[in-house]
């Protein structure tokens, strides 16, 4: 097996220098399985995905590849290199404020019209034609007469690579976070393969992220033709893996997640050998039950609730310290929820404004 | 006439200090005209609206008020006080990246159901009931069990004040900009009163800004009951005035715009005296013809096209200087458009990435 | 014992709102011991000192005070409230880039001339006169005809409060750090009382920080009059305590450090009761042996060396992951030092430019 | 004449990409005159120097070169590409806050010892030896065992290039500024050649900027050997040209400044042809009379005093608008100076904290 490397230009800086991505390709000798696209670090501070790609490339040396794999680490050079103080300010475009993970193209396809033109095709032909259309829409967007924003250009170039693959994995992290997976409801069984204890089952909808931008048009097509009496399973899978906390590189832990990805790829036949998923309890909730809790007051925050550990109703999430109120009972306030939950991630800083998102918690959690 | 001042808390900082707004109220002795709400500086660097409010309050001393006026300058204390280098980083929340002017509540009202409950009411009662509902939805949002983000809380508090008024004016500026007005299509004649040469006629739709958040539910209601055979004009007016460039205070020019607002208020009967609008040519285009032009390359920018001056097709917008390409013909590139336009604003910095929004231009401009 | 609270204005924001500090004062009934000044959070992200002040005020309820104590938590409201992304950008003035802890006044006193004027005074009178002079210089700086910068004004107001005290404690933290103490060489024995394992013995010099700004003029005076044959011990003590990592509030750990401060205050007679210092091994090195290690290359960083744990020569500090070099031996580089050290702190982010300060390490460490 | 271009690596980004500078060299056929080094854009937003280098390179095509010229535009790629909101945050390192123009090496040479070793040399040999020593010190700094910071590395690489030249010109701009020149007192007559109306005569001292880092060691050497009875004029000249306002590219104006530089180079024999300096009144003051005026209050700022225009005592610099104080006389405050001055530059933003540097003004101005 041979990893080949290329460099792709996705923008230009003010100094004229190119913004480029490293792209790694591993080709199957005889393709018999889905193709795979994996990217990491679209948010600048979420670096652990690079370590997972590193470990995965190393691990893959020992397996027989039956589908092509494309890997794009360091997928947002502008965001990764943008420091502000000691940290990486990589969550949004520093000029526009737009979240780098909300820049993907919503194709807004008129499915009925599209299908009317293509209904004579066989399933295989239909899939190829639809994929071509998706790529063409991306290309049109990139060639817009009025230009395209920095972030949208980067995202649509990434999206074009993703559209060429059957399996798409986008590697992120939370701020201070346990591992969790965004998995579309139609593909829920995939959650049993990754080395990830918590899964968010997301609707088959476009919310703006990479995974959604990839599977949503296919889901639309599938639903539409089902309404016309034709049954065709959705031919692409797309997931976002949240690998723990941002601003953290941990090579050993990266191997754990690389093996989880390997187990999923094995299940899908991308590698010939059988790789078993890690044995671990796995839990899930629906996205509607994934709640953001915002601080009802400003102050200094002691985070008490551990991410990834169930928290019974009435147990404190945080203490808010307000020294300006010393001497009153408001000097120290414990914040609690009225219902059981599993805290999945919390804010990165130990001081907050009123309204800062303190925690994201799963409620109505069930085992899967 | 007496201006009364109050302070409204709209948040808390990490140190515990309150974020507050100054609110000025001027009450009519006998109310016979619409009430007015004017705010400024929701984007931190767009300070000129404060000067306009200052001049307007001074001018109003000389007139007879027939409707109540509420004025909220410095409407975004967090954004105004957030410096980054020598400039104000006040366009978006520094934590989330969300544009401060996209935080208003989309009520998402089920108009059919609401009207079903209220159809027996007279027009006056219907308006009062609908206003109450809007305020109630805002209040529910502010009291959400899971809290509310810093920016959303600030916006919905402002929006609640705006919902109480019949005329809403939101004072903004562009980056480097000529004066222009966002005016909903249903209210197009209002554009003849302000001291503003260029008008964008916007659809009667929710795009997320203050003006839209105010008029859109009323437009929905009006359309719906028209479909039921009942005719009721939209009882609120809402505009965004773009007062030129950001990071600029100019008191004399502020008086010009204060007089324009006065002319509009006079037309609406809010002041008893007749104030004539400034005589000036006024132009407009539809929002769909308002184009963003993104730089096709990175580099240093010489802005050539004057804002507010018609630019024939083929005349250069900018020169892009690329010293890294000195010696080639790409060292200096003139960028041109293929169609006539009026440049309305351009980017604030003289260096750009590929994809930076260089200019916004009006096309298909017509006199009004 | 009664804690009284006041609010001190130290600046004004662009919106006109005051920047204020909460100040807590605890008065001794009969003063027989030195007075104390403790401040925290001069760097915006270094919040744990507030928790220590909170715990210390609570603990002090149980002791008999023989000297007055002034406590100023949240000492830099501008820095504390300045977020950039999810973190607090509180290390330097966002406009000027000046480190908030390098804004203190260097008095630049002509000691010879000053002493010439005051040599007839007794030791007690001399100390009082010198203190008055220091306060007067601060006041002159604050009243400068040409104004004074935002950061300098804040710092000199804090410094004035510190000059009034005999013992000054400035509470900081590192980025990712173990606890350590900055202690002037002339006061080295104080290091045995705080609950802090590592001490940096700093020269009796002005480097710009609060502690130095307080003790340095006294040390100059003491040295000068010694050269004139008069012996007077330095009557003030000033320390910087680094309480671990920034962006962290931990109340239990804060109690440990509050008790360490209490032990020092007990030793100095500020509280009547005997409080023993924690029994723990304590180590030190001279400031000249405190080394900053800068990354020789850019890349993703896995921090391997634990802060506070001795690291033998040749053991890796970090791995630098360079995915762009995958396939070469440079894809993963271990960085090592040629000498034994104790890593005290490391950079907060997991990605670095070439030249980023990766670690600060103590070398030539000895037990104290 | 042929311009040759090279690319110099001066750092590495977190993604692994090189930070590089474009370097242009123009060689004299027969060297009979001093060599020249010109750099631009060390502060990221100060872009106009690039346009001046562009125009200068074009103009030089028409002249006979008698000394080598090295030109380095875009000298700070990290700073130039660092946007924060719509502006370039390029004044200081975003991680450390250190001003990019205060990173140059202070050689701290023991001149007496150095001269003791070299006193037998002829003037020409002495100059060559001292230059070698300066370069060697730079090299040692770059090779430091503990590494070197990102900004220091960039600066010392630039400084090494500058040390190789006899004439050094550093192109900057102010925030909102008229053109002015930093000129060392020993070289005051040079001020008559550039197209610049205002000159600051700076002491022959190290303040941290490029120009000072270049001439200061030579001035030290010259002074020292003069004290030993040996007279040798300072063999290097170094200037900082402030080309107006930041965030501005203006090619026509750049040509004016390029011609001023050409006039100086002509005077120095670097070009064979005679180029006359622009006829214009030129004024100067000493650096001690260059005053920074800080805002005594926070608020919105209307800048009234034009930069480059003499301002009599008692005339207003600015109006500070304080809407929170509407109704009181403090709603609008005019700030004035008690002495005549020439405002040279003012702050870039229209809102300030208390203590923000509002204006820099020359006092005690004289014609030169």
TrEMBL record, chains A, B, C, D:
CDD domains: M14_PaAOTO_like. Its cofactor is Zn(2+). Keywords: Hydrolase, Metal-binding, Zinc. The keyword Glycosyltransferase does not apply. Residues 33-267 form the Succinylglutamate desuccinylase/Aspartoacylase catalytic domain. The keyword Metal-binding applies. GO terms for molecular function: hydrolase activity, acting on ester bonds; metal ion binding. Pfam families: AstE_AspA_cat. This is Succinylglutamate desuccinylase/aspartoacylase family protein. The lineage of its organism: Bacteria, Pseudomonadati, Pseudomonadota, Gammaproteobacteria, Alteromonadales.
């Amino acid at each position: 097996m041979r990893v080949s490397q290329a460099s792709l230009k996705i923008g230009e800086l003010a100094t004229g220098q190119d913004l480029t991505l490293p792209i790694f390709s591993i080709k199957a000798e005889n393709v018999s399985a889905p193709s795979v696209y994996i990217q990491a670090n679209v948010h600048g501070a979420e670096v652990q995905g690079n370590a997972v790609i590193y470990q995965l490339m190393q691990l893959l040396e020992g397996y027989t590849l039956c589908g092509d794999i494309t890997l794009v680490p360091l997928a947002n050079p502008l965001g990764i290199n943008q420091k502000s103080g000691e940290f990486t300010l990589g969550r949004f475009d520093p000029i526009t404020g737009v979240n780098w993970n909300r820049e993907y193209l919503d194709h807004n396809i008129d499915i009925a019209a599209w299908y009317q033109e293509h209904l004579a095709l066989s399933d295989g032909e239909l899939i190829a034609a639809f994929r071509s259309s998706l790529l063409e829409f991306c290309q049109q967007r990139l060639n817009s007469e009025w230009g395209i924003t920095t972030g949208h250009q980067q995202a649509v170039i990434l999206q074009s690579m993703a559209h060429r693959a059957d399996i798409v994995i986008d590697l992120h992290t939370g701020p201070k976070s346990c591992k969790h997976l965004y998995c579309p409801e139609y593909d829920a069984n995939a959650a049993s393969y990754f080395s990830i204890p918590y899964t968010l089952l997301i609707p088959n909808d476009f919310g703006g992220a990479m995974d959604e931008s990839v599977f949503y048009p296919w889901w639309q097509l599938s639903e539409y033709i089902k309404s016309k009496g034709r049954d065709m399973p959705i031919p692409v899978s797309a997931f976002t893996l949240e690998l723990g906390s941002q601003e953290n590189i941990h090579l050993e832990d990266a191997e754990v997640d690389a093996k989880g990805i390997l187990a999923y790829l094995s299940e899908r036949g991308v590698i010939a050998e059988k790789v078993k998923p890690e044995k671990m309890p796995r839990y899930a909730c629906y996205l509607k039950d994934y709640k953001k809790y915002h601080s009802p007051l400003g102050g200094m925050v002691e985070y008490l609730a551990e991410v990834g550990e169930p928290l019974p109703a009435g147990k404190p999430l945080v203490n808010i310290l307000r020294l300006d109120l010393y001497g009153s009972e408001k000097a120290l306030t414990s914040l609690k929820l009225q219902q059981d939950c599993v805290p999945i991630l919390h804010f990165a800083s130990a001081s907050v404004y009123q309204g800062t998102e303190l925690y994201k918690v799963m409620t109505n959690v069930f085992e899967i």
